[in-house]
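Table S2 (text version). Query chain:
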Amino acid sequence: MKLCAISCRLQQLPVVVRETDGISVETGDHRHRKDKVVVVMGATGTGKSRLAVDLAKKFHAEVINADKMQVYDGLDVVTNKMTVQEQCGVPHHLLGGVDPEAEFSAANFRALASASIDGIIRRGRLPIVAGGSNSYIKALVSDETSLFRLQYDCCFLWVDVSLPVLHKFVSDRVDRMVRAGLVEEVRGVFQPKADYTLGLRKSIGVPELDQFLRAESCGADAQTLAALLEVAIDQIKANTRKLTHNQLRKIHMLRDIHGWNLHRLDATGAVESSGQVSRDDWERRVVGPSMSIVGRFLLRNIIMDGVSSSSSSSSSSFSGIAATAAMVAAAAAGVVETAITIG
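Corresponding structure-token output:
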């Protein structure tokens, strides 16, 4: 009865139309009704993939990877791909599958991601695009033909961590990756004449180990190898920190210059000084507010169903499942709403 009462009240609410960078984020006219897509953005190490899985479990969703190195097969440790266990049974798309020797462009991503989104919606589920390759996300959302903007209503979540905390976190993560087999993984694909500007070999962690692996293949002594490995690991950490700066710069451009409406979620407090993530803080500071934001975003589908019973087949299948999840999230929105920080 409570959900029914919420639905009745929602059907009486006025519906507003707002345009952001040509992206319609709200409409009540069934003739212009758009399917829903959630986009999770952020610098490397902020927890984008983790949040995408957390939301997918709650909103009957599937995840589309938007990390330009994780689309390739291989080097799972180097590229920090989510393990099967970390995926928690949530279907993932474009997480591997591309030949590591091939070039994969933003246009390639746009084509494959668009096809994945269409398939997810046809299955009555919510697409969540998650990754740190902002050029890929921009190519998808702001394509030259504007087809994406005509078809989809987007909710942008930006997971942010203060740079001092993030820098320590990613440096500690590199150490964990080394212990998990990063060097052994790169050794397995090492080729003295390889081109580090192509394919998977562009990944941070591969070119930095070149001098170490060359010396190792030539039979260098243990002391020399230890020194070269230390330099390589320091370079990996430095280049990862540089990547976070570049990613944040692009996110700021999308918000400040292109006018994207980004919901900023400050995850700094969820990352402890030890470089680990507190589960309780993560739920309170990131997952809870994200549920509220996405819940309100999906509730607009319910409003539109109240305005008109006419809808596309994909929208009908989506609203039957995701709208219920949206109502559940809305019921909790009052509890977590104060924790939201909007950038």
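Notes on Table S2: Residues 1-31, 307-313, 331-343 have pLDDT under 50 and may be disordered. The beta strands are 18-20, 23-26, 35-42, 61-65, 92-93, 126-130, 152-160, 262-266.
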